[in-house]
Amino acid sequence: MTDTVIEPTIENPPVAFTQEHIGWTAWLPPLTEDELTDRHYEALVDKARAKNGYFALLVRDPDILEARTKTDNDIFYNTKDGLPRAERELAATAASRLNGCILCASVHSRFASQYSKRTEDVQKLLDDGVSTDLGERWNAIVAASVALSATPPAFGSEHVKRLRDAGLADEEISDVVHGASFFNWANRLMLSLGEPTPAA
Amino acid sequence: MTDTIDIIDHLVGVTPDSKAEGLRARRPITREHAQKSWLALFEPADVSQVSLAERFAVATFVALLHGQTDIADFYAGKLASLDNGTTLLSTVKGLAELNGANGPYGHYPAGPLSSENKDGPALNITPADRDVLGEKLAAALYHAHLLVFRPREASPAALQALLSAGWSTTGIVTLSQLVSFLAFQIRVVAGLKTLAAA
């Protein structure tokens, strides 16, 4: 057997939650660009991802990567109706903060800030954790995302009521459920197949 | 296998013209690709790296650790229909019963987050369980328990343990996707059931 793990030596690894751009490096060998077939490129969905170690590792199983990526894109980018993008990103950030994925939280907290223009509130969530006070609507979204991300999940009718009281329609609550749930998928891949690196 | 049913609809118990049906129907792309994800993992084109028994044994175990009896029963039924499946199922159920916990927990990399470190158990596999499961599946269940409850404690050493137990790099990618996909699927099902009933 020739398969081996990679144990990177990283100077000043990110050890706190941040909205800065940070990187990620794999613990198992990604496919190199000369190993990629047409099927691999199709599964990457976005061809530029061939140069990204995370996706170039996941593309070893192209069928699940392709379906995962298209699920992800619809949950977050399909904003013709339903929950505003900023609050989908807030759900993703809350799940990532609870599970402890520094890299996922960095990417999605930046998106939450960009779309909401509430950079300081987003930073409070990163610095103080999921119990911080962000105003009732965001508190309700964070609390629901956190309850759903617990194992076993602890999301109950009281979370639905709180979200409704905060003004969310059931379609928007479904978007919170999907955003938080998807990050329970993403966090586990990102945390277990490699680790964050400092900004280049 | 010829599953044509939508698995999330099936697990939620969606009925025609119900509220849950409406919530799923408004996101047809999510629905299509969540289903394709399930098919990629559980009706795969290639089982050379991860067998069907390994896939359904891990899935049953992950659903049980999430406390979702109905979802676990669904995967257990699939496992029981495979060769040696009932024997594996009995061991998987026993392990899940003895190794339940409340996550997420675990240690952060040393630094400012160390004050948030929270201790919790790893999977305990007895020699008798190991005899039934074999080294490869035992290693997969150990890793699945890590991913379910304490993903922030993942490490290169955890992946080395899988390689040493006979997993290939590609097999580890598939196993990681399978456990992580279930963490998503189980929460979508639990969340939609709660929302539809509330």
Please write out the topology.
The complex is a heterodimer of chains A (200) and B (198).
Chain A (H helix, E strand, L loop, with lengths): L22 E4 L11 H7 L8 H6 L3 H16 L7 H15 L2 H15 L2 H10 L7 H14 L7 H9 L4 H23 L1 E4 L3
Antiparallel strand pairs in A: 1-2
Chain B lengths: L6 H6 L6 H7 L2 H15 L9 H14 L3 H12 L4 H14 L28 H23 L6 H9 L4 H29 L1
Task: Considering the chains and any ligands shown, give keywords for the structure.
heterodimer, A: 200 residues, mainly alpha, AhpD-like, two-stranded antiparallel sheet, 9 helices, 2 strands, B: 198 residues
Could you give a quick summary of the protein structure above?
The complex is a heterodimer of chains A (200) and B (198). Chain A is mainly α and 200 residues long.
What does this protein structure show overall?
The complex is a heterodimer of chains A (200) and B (198). With 200 residues, chain A is mostly helical. Chain A has 2 domains: 60 residues, no CATH class; 106 residues, AhpD-like (Up-down Bundle). Helix content of chain A is 57%, strand content 4%. Chain A has 9 helices and 2 strands; from the N terminus they run βαααααααααβ. Chain A has a two-stranded antiparallel sheet with strand order 1-2. In chain A, helix 1 packs parallel to helix 3 and helix 4 crosses helix 7. Chain A starts with 22 loop residues before the first strand and ends with a strand. Chain B has one domain. Chain B is built from 9 helices and no strands. Chains A and B meet through helix 3, helix 8 and helix 9 of A and helix 3, helix 7, helix 8 and helix 9 of B.
